[in-house]
Amino acid sequence: xxxxxxxxxxxxxxxxxxxxxxxxxxxxxxxxxxxxxxxxxxxxxxxxxxxxxxxxxxxxxxxxxxxxxxxxxxxxxxxxxxxxxxxxxxxxxxxxxxxxxxxxxxxxxxxxxxxxxxxxxxxxxxxxxxxxxxxxxxxxxxxxxxxxxxxxxxxxxxxxxxxxxxxxxxxxxxxxxxxxxxxxxxxxxxx
Length: 191
Hints:
Strand order of the largest sheet: 2-3-11-14-13-12
Mean pLDDT: 86
Order of helices and strands: EEEEEEEEEEEEEEE
Shape: elongated
Low-confidence stretches: 1-7
Structural class: mainly beta
Helix content: under 10%
Distance between the termini: 34 Å
CATH class of the largest domain: Mainly Beta
CATH topology of the largest domain: Thrombin, subunit H
Number of domains: 2
Strand content: over 45%
């Protein structure tokens, strides 16, 4: 499956959309931040094992067990069970056997086998992040600058370096407005 690109929610406290920036530690100007994150399919053919929410069990002593909403079994404890080696001394463990995780009732210590299901829904992880800004000022094409995204009090929320690309200018009776597209050349780092 091909990686997909989606808009990110934020970098630290800097969120996509209208922001206030400082270019090369100059005065604060308006800008629009765009963040794109590559989503990489990390699914496996065997899926992910998770608790079976429909599972419950009554052990021989009458104690009831089930998965809780927080993926624990409050009436059981996790233990380590020793598993004997079938191959004897010919095995790499030299007959010592191995261990495996197990569950047992916290009251009577009877073994419990919790129900699980295999979740084969696609799993994605974040990959490469690209960011860009449209700033309300003129910056010559190709010029590299440092960018600080700041809050209303001037506190730096995120920062990075960018290069100026294309831009536009528009004039009205209020004056000329310049806009420059900046493309990040370093990661946008949270402060």
